[in-house]
Amino acid sequence: PELLFPNSNTRGILKYGVYLSDDPDFPRDGTNDVSGLLNRRLQFWYNAGIHIVNVTNFRYKIGTNVTMPAGMRFVIHEGARLSIDSGVTLSGEIVAGAYQVIEGSGTLNLTGDAQDVYADWWLSSATDTTGFQAAVNAVDGTKHTMLLSPKTYTLDKITASTGIRVIGSHESLSTLKLTDETANDKFFDCAGDVIFRDLVLDINKDNQNTARPDGIYFDGDSLTAENVHFTNIKASGINCENATKSAKIRRCRFDEFALHGGLLNEVSRACRLASSSDECEMWFQDNEVIGPDRVPDGLNPFVLIFPQGKNQSVTITSIRASVSVTEIASSTTISRH
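^ that's the sequence the OP posted. Answer follows.
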């Protein structure tokens, strides 16, 4: 028979859960598959009223799909890893700190109620774009929120197609920085319902000699950016296009703009809001735009509002700026407050 807590002394098991490291039947080297045994153990422990499974110290290979019963959770301690094979899905609820707990190219399907998820769970380093994209994929279109640690993540293009919430630890401590010499014209390419809050987004303009990337390119239902510091802007800090139905840009700072010479003779923009969706609502409230000391005459505005649909509403309040920043261009009837 399956043991309730193999080789364990009293740990207050119903309160603190079982420890995989106590079970000698589980391979701990990260190369031998534990999936079949883990599925059996999970169901047995669940039936016994145990809802917490502690993962400590070792690597456990997930080679076939594993699904935790509803209400159970993995508590993964620092130094432990779940290594998920390509094409394999681990479904369950995870509790962990801001450190790596997931390896491999498989999928983590987060279940349960909305929870906070650290991007660091997937990252081998702060420059791991593949791991960061895996983190975004896990929360994309879910109710889960992705948290950032107080450090700099240096990444290439990241895509979210359905909707994400990315929350930093503070608007000056958590930085998302675009890698040098990207080949992409977008840093974050987003759709759906998207929130960025309490972080720095650094587009690294001085190290982009070919591409002219936007910081956030958005073409979806709803974008909210609050307490975000957009800096070293190459093209636009934010560029909202086409299908955008709602854009709320609040308490953000935009500074360190690139100046493009030659025939273009234009400066990078803080924000471009250009939606063709009917009934679109756009807010640009309580933001700060710090432009260069000198800009040539005739440059495009730092904030361009360009409604293209019917019955669109634009609200602009309390812009603190060192330059003339705003232009509204429209062939439709809009309300400006």
